[in-house]
């Protein structure tokens, strides 16, 4: 079993709505799909 909880390694999300729809929110820095544009407060956790 992979450590990315079933998320695709090449995942990327245009916004938090897309990440939530994919079941990927919250997304953490270093996780597939994380992008600074998803992390409004810069704490390393997007779409929290």
TrEMBL record:
InterPro entries: Excalibur_Ca-bd_domain. This is Excalibur calcium-binding domain-containing protein. Residues 12-48 form the Excalibur calcium-binding domain. Coiled coil: none annotated. Residues 34-48 have a biased composition (Basic and acidic residues). Residues 25-48 are annotated as: Disordered.
